[in-house]
Write a structure and sequence with these properties.
Length: 478
């Protein structure tokens, strides 16, 4: 008796409901991974995500082998491959954990129907979320559009949330010919730009668990105060691990609960609230599947964006050459490590969409390709929130001032100095706005504006006024 467990973005053995359900039935397990990027179009994994995926799949295969099974790896059309695998292995059922982005949801629905019609038992499970997107509904039965209301609904339910399932000690595996290796999938870049990623990360379930434990032991207490500081290692850096399902939110919640004083209501802790934002992002993507391409606030369809044909501005932003130090530091951190601090993501996105008035979709695409944690739900929410056109958006007139943000959250300039070493010798007072420094100060620090560091790409005050004027034009559209 054989059951196929189809791994997707749940690349772990711990707290994996699909695997657990298959094992519970006493069957032998055929673990499968199918690489089918076309089926995720137009949001097939970007370059940084593919790098991560390569290493995560290798880690999963090793963990399976250590327990008596091995990952069957293939590429092509998922439905056809699953059908063939079921035939050759004689499997009677297929289990998987659900995905929530529009393309894979549609695909999975079709696969379920077709395989069931062919007599196979198909079951999907929740391995990715604390709350299914359809479980939370407003008083009138609709989806939430405001985070605080969403979290007021969810947070009290955390107390009775079921705990995680332990990883199985042994997995009685089925081995089948015809599978390939992770390397066959060609996920690694041909030009090896990935050294910075390799230095920064350990993809895989073990890396995820170690990262979580280190964060909870060392940084959970100060998290609420320090999480906005890009100059401190104060956040968990769990986002790529969560995206690829190397650790599940139930396990993370249980570990967090154990690390916190019992008296504190779990949902009120700043870290658990952030996990709540992730849940909210999935809630929104599920109920508003058009939002990766279209603003939730339809008025923004008429916003006077700058012509995107002006590629020089976009390129300077992408390359961290805007002349605005905090933004450049963030964009370079992103390029080098595949990750950017949340505060800086907001500031960089605000500069692109408000000061440069370039469509938020261009920024979202760049993040998609360069982030190791690129996630359709969270990326869409983050970009629309910052651009002011999404759910729970900050009031449009609140345009981030990157200089003030730098002075507040990188007060000693450690972050900017790390990623923009050409500015390192500038005094703190002008570090976040080198264009205000005197020529003597610049010369003494070895900074030549327009020579070894760019002059600012826009006038921040003037461009802020233009962005607000654009908003005035659309705000009364109903
Ligand atoms: P922590 O502060 O340790 O938070 C713990 C976890 O909570 C994170 O790992 C993440 O899963 C979740 N989380 C925290 N903040 C948010 C948030 N604002 N929205 C949704 N989930 C959150 N996050 C992604 O995972 N993928 C993306 O593609 C992504 N794109 C973003 C784009 C923009 C423009 C912005 C402003 C934010 C984006 N975020 C995205 C959200 C956030 O920046 C990252 O989740 C966070 O920086 C990850 O670092 P961490 O794991 O150390 O976070």
């Amino acid at each position: 008796d054989t059951i196929i467990v189809w791994f997707r973005r749940d690349l772990r053995l711990d707290d994996n409901p699909a695997l657990e359900a298959a094992l519970r039935s006493g069957a032998r397990i055929l673990p499968v991974y199918i690489h089918a990027p076309d089926e995720e179009a137009p949001w097939a994994p970007g370059a940084a995500s593919r790098w991560w995926l390569h290493h995560s799949l290798e880690a999963l295969d090793a963990a399976l082998r250590a327990r008596g099974a091995r990952l069957w790896i293939g590429q092509g059309e998922s439905l056809a491959l699953l059908r063939r695998l079921a035939e050759t292995s004689g499997a009677r059922a297929i289990h998987w954990n659900r995905l929530y982005d529009p393309a894979t949801r549609a695909r999975d629905t079709e696969i379920k129907q077709r395989l069931r019609a062919a007599g196979l038992d198909c079951a999907s499970h929740n391995g990715a979320l604390l709350f299914e997107p359809w479980e939370a509904a407003t008083g009138s039965g609709g989806p939430y559009r405001v985070f605080s209301a969403f979290w007021r609904h969810c947070a009290p339910r955390l107390a009775e949330h079921p705990g995680p399932i332990a990883a199985p000690a042994r997995i009685p595996g089925v081995e089948l010919d015809g599978g390939g290796t992770v390397a066959d999938l060609g996920l690694l870049p041909r030009i090896r730009w990935d050294q910075g990623l390799a230095e920064a990360w350990t993809p895989g379930e073990h890396g995820a668990r170690t990262t979580a434990e280190r964060f909870l032991a060392g940084h959970l207490v100060g998290y609420g105060e320090l999480r906005d500081h890009p100059d401190r290692p104060a956040t968990s850096c769990l986002s790529p691990h969560l995206h690829f399902g190397e650790i599940g939110p139930r396990r993370l919640l249980a570990l967090t609960r154990a690390a916190l004083p019992a008296a504190l209501p779990l949902g009120e802790h700043a870290f658990v609230r952030e996990l709540g934002w992730r849940e909210f992002a999935y809630h929104l993507l599920y109920h508003f599947p058009q939002t990766p391409e279209h603003p939730l606030d339809a008025r923004f369809a008429d916003y006077p964006w700058r012509e995107p044909s002006d590629t020089e501005l976009l390129e300077r932003w992408q390359q961290g050459r805007t002349g605005i130090p905090l933004v450049d530091a963030g964009m370079r951190e992103l390029w080098h490590t595949g990750w950017m601090h949340n505060r800086v993501r907001m500031v960089a996105a605000s500069l692109l969409t408000k000061n440069l008035r370039l469509p938020w979709q261009l920024g979202a695409r760049w993040f998609w390709d360069t982030l190791v944690d690129a996630d359709l739900a969270s990326n869409t929410l983050g970009w629309q929130w910052t651009a002011g056109c999404g759910a729970d958006a900050a009031p449009y007139f609140r345009v981030f001032n990157p200089v003030r943000q730098g002075e507040r959250f990188d007060p000693n300039g450690d972050y900017v100095r790390r990623w923009c070493p050409e500015l390192a010798r500038l005094p703190d007072k002008v570090l976040q706005q080198p264009w205000t420094a005197t020529s003597t100060t610049l010369a003494r620090a070895g900074v030549g504006l327009g020579v070894n560091y760019p002059a600012p790409i826009v006038d921040l005050a003037q461009s802020r006024r233009e962005a607000l004027a654009g908003w005035e034009r659309i705000k009364s559209i109903s």
